[in-house]
Request: fold
Amino acid sequence: MPAKPKLCADEILKAEFEYIVATATQANEDRSKVASFYFVSVGSLIAAIFSTQLFDPDQNGETLQTIYLAFFVLFSFLTILGYLTIAQLARLRTAWMDSVKAMNKIKEYYIQNTGEFLQPAFLWTNDYAPRGYQPGSVANYLAYQVALLSGLIFAASIFFFQLGIEKTNCLWLFTISLGIFMFILQLYYYKKIVSKKKA
Reply:
């Protein structure tokens, strides 16, 4: 009967730690990619608007109404895309927090099995790890940017909808209030998701 291979706990723990570091790094990179995709999508649409004949005085009423309603649909789509971007940012933040929690678990294992002489070397443990929702963090600033842009886009969609149905007196206070509401709603959703997780 062949002898069982000798297993080295340090090697498997090292490999696990390296994998966790890689997943944490990937979550951070993905956050930037997700936000950049949304910003580029919005920028492309704005450029498309200014390249149309939207402000051409020769346009007849029916054509303009159709264009306005088309922009309402496009801006509504971008609002939904903004909401989904916020959801992705929140999930990526929780994924990063899970990685921090897993790294801290390995640290605590080493602390418990080495007479605690390693404890002063670690800044982060599960007792002192960053919180999920930190108003001044880069992750939150990305969420603020996406939510603000999405709120503005939602207000624009309401504006174009009013023009599309020939509402000559646009309700500016109503339009701006809905944009602010969308901004707050998305930030609330983001905070709710990331606050559930504790590193």
Notes: The chain has one domain: 9-51+59-195. Helices lie at 9-51, 61-112, 138-164, 172-195. The radius of gyration is 25 Å.
